[in-house]
Design brief:
seven-stranded mixed beta sheet, globular, disordered N terminus
Length: about 210
Amino acid sequence: MQRNEIDARRAATDGMGQAAWDERYRTAEFIWSLAPNRFVAEQLAGLAPGRALDLACGEGRNALWLASRGWQVTAVDFSGVALDKGRERAAKSGLELDWVAADLTAYVPEAGGFDLVVIAYLHLFQHDLDTVLRRAAGALAAGGMLFIVGHDATNPAEGVGGPQDLRVLYTPEAVTAPLAALRIERAERVARHVDGAARPAIDTLVVATRA
């Protein structure tokens, strides 16, 4: 991971609304890596492709990786600038995805419509995050998987990068609490190498499935 990737998606507490994210995405050709998140690649590479939903997709690195592996992907973000970058990359790669501009606190995905839902580094107040997580769980088809990764609450003191506001950081317990309808397969803290940093970033990683 490059040094300019260590700041994760900011919540409203950091003043990063839609307009601010649009402006940030204009500051560089790509502000995130073009490769998928390492945990996304490690955990999901072995899955048979189906319908996938990437919530807070940003420039589409995870969505495009899934599409390249045969998934039918719906990618959602509130930044039109980021989505345009994703569309351009998809066109150059000959990939077709459904790009949706929406605020995730209001977006309601198709119930039972997806075999996989990915949420990577979406940091919101707990009430809003719980709403997104419950809707994500409801979007899973039978046997579907919900994959969640984000900066952990221990990261400001023990890791590197990411939001510093504890109110928007993850813990395994807080992330799994609204997922009562799912079976929790994995819920733990994981370390992620950051180039040029003296210590790793610390993330919460949760994998849950609908029986």
